[in-house]
Structure formats: structure tokens, C-alpha cells
Amino acid sequence: MLSFGRNLKIVILCLGFLAAHAQPGEPSVESMKAALPALAGRARLVALLDLANRTESASPQEALAYAEEGLALAIQQGDREKEAAFLTSTAYCSGQSGDYSKAIDYGRRALALSTQLGDKERMAKAHNAMAITYTFIGSYSQALDEAIESLRLREALGLEKAVTQSMNLIGVVYHNSGQYGQAIEYYEQILRRIAQRPDTRRLILTRLNIGFSQFKMGRLDDALKNHLAAFALSRETKDDSYLAYNYMNLGMTYSELRRFDQARENLRLARAQYGKFNHRHGLVQVLNATARMHLLSGSFAKGIPIAQEAAALAKVINTRDELKRSYELISELHEKMGDTAAAFRAFKQAMEIKDSIYTIQESNTIAESTMKIVTIRKDNEIEALKKERVISSLQLERNRYFLAVLV
């Protein structure tokens, strides 16, 4: 199994939350932006929500500005339904922008208000937003709880597209916790649903996610096929929703295949795309991926400042998993250059981060979370969603670390 595959986490865009693109006959985002200054009152409120939903995948910080203005306006107008909607959008966009504490806070507020209003669809969206944020910060047991609740509500409401979003997120949680086979099972369920109800954007995302799980399993040829298929479909349909994620997946896969020219170009394009929209979590990941490419290609000196840049940004947005990976890369690169003292310092930092992930996020839930089954019924079918081993890999790695120290 690939060392890099064990550590790099799913990027922001793969999660696929509420992003909406113009349907035939709908105004474009640009035309809506142009019309916004002339709008006031209820019309402006509706336009702000539409813009937030339509831009949150490609440009979360821009969407966040729309959501925050809309939230203030909804409160001013006493529109509690729109207030709940803007709270959810603010939660999602804050998470995408790396402000995780704000994302959780607004997600909880959105859930509380939606519950008070009895709006189950909005409740499901709030659960989904929090699940995404918990996934980013490595709290997988909490992420799975939120994703399962979102799926339960959406199944009960018969919301087919939203159901696939929740299933995708459950796959992402399993993927990030190291259960790649389990993740692929969920992604393949989505493919079967897409075959019955075609959805090009969802197909692109699902191909990318399957390819990423295959990459982590070391199935590089299969991963490359899925990534290239997703890229071709994206070009064919002119849908760039997941372009940065696609470039990064291709870059990582080419790196492991030692096709460094192609890896370098795809990672450059991924970094440019993430930078364009200030996707800070994605930037951390592509920086780590680039440092990994330099490690594999033997250009160790070039890799160190890139991994250090990734570590600095990971600290700012408080993504501990990526910070741990940055320190691991710094350690490996220094070791290759013969600087054992610097390598040990970085390794020690990585171990401290690993231990903090365990202590802060999972210590109170390991006993009850290693084997929990939640059953969801739909159309007389029962689907068991297992939490088994969601965090067992974290526990095992921690135990191994302490054993190594004792020895």
C-alpha cells in the first residue's frame, strides 16, 4: 500500500455538497451577479441564496459573502426559513474555506433552527455540512454519525439526488479512515443509481472518488483509468466543477507511476485552480502532493520548502491530518539529504500531531464506535451502515507508536 495513499486526505471538492449549476432556461451566474445591485428586499434575499448555492463549489469565499449578507438580511426581515438556509450555506462555505470552528458553529445553529421549523430537508443539509467539516478535521466517528443522519432523513423524504450526496459522503468518511474497499462499495452503489437516473456531474465525481480509493490501495492503473475517464467527461460536457480535484488526482497517480513530467504539469494546474478560488484545504493537499513528487523524483532540496509551505498553511487552517503529513514529508526529505537531526525533529513533530489527533478527536468514542450499526429502511430494503474499524486504524497506529517508544 502506498505510503502517500495512507495519509493524503480527500480534497474539498470531492465532497460535493449543495453546488448547483444552471439548468436549461435558468439565468447564468454572471447575469445574476450583474442584476444583484438593482435588487432589494425579498428579491435580493432570493437572489443571494441562489448565488450562494450556485458558487459555493467553485468559489466558496465568494459564496460565503453572499451567504453572510443573506443571513443578515433574512434576520432583519424575520424570514426564518431563509435564515436556516443561509446558516447552512455559511456553515458549508466556512468549512470549504478552512474556518472549521465557524463551520461547526453555524452548522449547529442551522440544525437547531431547522429542527424548530420542522424542515427535515434543511435538517439533512445541516447534518451533511457538519459531516463534511468533521471529515476535514479527522473526526471520523462524528462525521459518520452526521452523514448517516443526513442519509436517513433524505431516504425518508425520497430525495434521490440528495441521497447520493449522503452516500458519497459516507464513502468519503470510510475512505479517509482507511476503509477503501468499503468506500468503493458506496461509490459503486451511486454508479448503479446514476445508471437509472443519469447525472453527469455526479458521475464525474464518483469516477474521481473511486479512482482515489484505488490509488490509495495501490491499484494505480485502475485509478488512472477512472481519473482520465472523469477528465474526458468533464471536457466533453464543459463541466469544470471538479477540475482541481481531477488535476490533483492525475498528478498524484503520475507521481507514483514515475511519470514525473505529467505529474508536475497536473499538480501545477491543480495548484493554480485551488489558488484561483482560495481553496486553502486543497492548496495544502496539492503542496503535499508536490513535495511527495519531489521526494520520489529525487529532487529532495526542492521538496523541503514546498512541504514547509504546506505545514504553515495547515497550521493556519488547523487541519491536523495534513499537518502531520507535511511533517512526515519534511522528515523523509531531510533524511534523504542526510540531515538526520532535522529529519528526527520533523518526525517528532509528526508523532506529536498524530497523538493529538487521537487524544482530541477520538479518545471518548473509541470504545463505543468500533462496532456500531445503524439500519436504514427504504423500499423494504435494509442497508447496514457499519462503523467498524472507522477509527481502529488510528488506534492501531497509536498503539504501535507507544510500543516502539517502549522498545
General description of the model:
With 407 residues, the chain is mainly alpha-helical. Helix content is 76%, strand content 3%. It is built from 20 helices and 2 strands. It has helices at residues 3-7, 29-35, 41-55, 60-77, 80-96, 100-117, 120-136, 140-157, 160-176, 180-196, 200-216, 220-237, 243-256, 260-276, 280-297, 300-317, 320-336, 340-362, 366-369, 392-406, and strands at 373-378, 381-386. Strand 1 and strand 2 (381-386) form a beta hairpin. The two termini are 26 Å apart. The model is unreliable at 1-22 and 359-407 (pLDDT under 50).
Q: End-to-end distance, in Å?
A: 26 Å
Largest sheet: 2 strands, antiparallel
What general form does the structure show? globular
Q: Would you report the number of β strands?
A: 2
Q: Over the alpha carbons, how many angstroms does the gyration radius reach? A: 21 Å
Mean pLDDT: 84
Q: Kindly name the structural category.
A: mainly alpha
Low-confidence stretches: 1-22, 359-407
The succession of helices and strands, N to C, reads HHHHHHHHHHHHHHHHHHHEEH
Helical percentage: over 70%
- The largest sheet has its strands arranged as 1-2
- Total helical segments: 20
Oligomer: single chain
Kindly estimate the percentage of residues that lie in beta strands according to DSSP. Answer: under 5%
Question: What descriptors fit this protein?
Answer:
two-stranded antiparallel ribbon, mainly alpha, 2 strands, single chain, 407 residues, disordered C terminus, 3% strand
